[in-house]
Amino acid sequence: MFGVVFPNRSFPLDISTFAQIDTFHWVLDMNHFVGEEYDSIREVCIFLLNNFTLPPDKALAVYIQSPGSHFLFCGAVTVSRPSAVLSLPWPEPGSNAAQLQLTAPEVPPLSAKIGVSVEDLAALPSLDVAAEKKIERLALKVGENLFNFMQSFCGVDGSKLVVPMDILDRWFKKFQERAKRDPEYLKGFAL
User: Where is the Hikeshi-like N-terminal domain (predicted)?
Assistant: First the structure.
């Protein structure tokens, strides 16, 4: 049905590596894979196998769980998106970011887990949560850069900040020049 690879950490692992909870849920116990070093695994590549056809309205959703926390949604693959590299933002152990319950609620998990679940595509928030977060952080950093630049040219008129009319053009020109001079500059914006 599916396989996973932990980039730079593993060979491809097929569904037999996961414990099947029921017809639509599988769990990989990270204790068996890396022990207590689970949070050093920062990405997973999940892919559908060639002979498996997932209905077009379904997705294979990927969740992660730190010891003592609930499962947290990370992303999904579909027939139209048969593979994805997903970031694994492990929740703090003991946090309550509940999204999926694959274990009994009264028994806190003792090890980190990766869960895979067949779900309705329409019910999922986004196929790649980490990509959305990266875009959001990038926008915030660029906005902060613009604000800091504008602030150095501001005047105050009562309760309003007054800036020169060409401030956006000046900022963008400076931004482009700095990016051309220093290729590492833009990497600082994309965390």
Answer: 18-123
